[in-house]
Amino acid sequence: MRLTVLAPIMFAAVALTGCNSFFDSTDFSSVQEKMNYSLPSSMVAKMSKYDMAKNAPITIRIFKEEGVLEIWKQKRDGTYGELETYEICAWSGKLGPKKKEGDRQAPEGFYPLSKGLLNPYSQYFLAINTGYPNRYDRANQFTGSDLMIHGACSSRGCYSMTDEQILEIFAFARDAFSGGQQAIMLQAYPFRMTAENMVRHRYNENYPFWQMLKEGYDYFDVTHKIPDVDVCGGEYLFNKDPVNGGDVASDRACPVMASNLTAQDKMALAQNQSDYQKQFAKALAENDDKVWIDPSEAERKAIVADLREDPTDALYQPTGSSLEAGRFVTVEQYRISKYGPLETPEDVASEIDTVTQTAAIPDVPEVPVSSAVPIPEPSPMAAYAEPEQPTKGDRPFWKFW
Description:
By secondary structure, this protein is α+β, with helices and mostly antiparallel strands.
């Protein structure tokens, strides 16, 4: 992996400005005990069963919508196998990447974690800094700091676990570093990037960004190997090398690049893409008239409110599943809820009929365009939207931040 790590944050009592509150655990008498926590023998036996060495490298995958964190560990054949899955206790904001300080968004993307990003002195029991902002974030002028995976179940832009969970996750990372791993790749996704989920979220403003992430997602999902990740031209680049030794700079256009995939991986990915196109077309036909409403953080908290024994406890703020709190509505229901019933003068009725009803809901081809990920339809609310803000040329939306 070539996405460079940030300068290490050495073990120190640092203030977590991204998720800042004091948490005191009585389960351990010293920080050293937390740092030296040994994984249970049942977990070590599980590694052995899956042909994994105790100190083998790991990768961490996060799926916001499902609210899960997965630990994948390298097997002796070099591929990665899923070892453990944890339910995320709390994450703040909505689906979509973090763009600026204070937006409460949790990061999405590819983040290489160095050993120095482990923080046993965390005010939230234990923490692993995600390394936000990474090279992609900085190239797009995203702002924010101290975004963590930590304990205590409270989030302001972090992925918050229970103390018992972060104790194991921290131990997985510590052991991998002890075994010689230089950087652990954190893969943070909005959801599992299946054809059904991509169709469901096709009207979301973050869809172009998610299309870009999907190339890295697909590579790992198909091959169970960590993708090479670069950033150039303000975009992620996967499994490519510069031709003739060209430079790859995050803030400059990409040089001529060539794939570094093996023939076997290319064939597997091509088959995966063919299957995906068929699945996408089927899901699109089944959900053609539907718009998925992504729930707010407050809506997600409401469905798990009964888990909070003490509503005044600011250190325990679980958030429920986006899948459970979200919902489908029809295109017309969404229009009415957002803009109200249409009331237009008779003399413009024909214009509304031809422009709004036709342009805003274009015909969908039977098969998506032949690209890495199908391009979404224009929003069905296009004709009702507020005036567009000035843009900078024809660049994708994520480059305006």
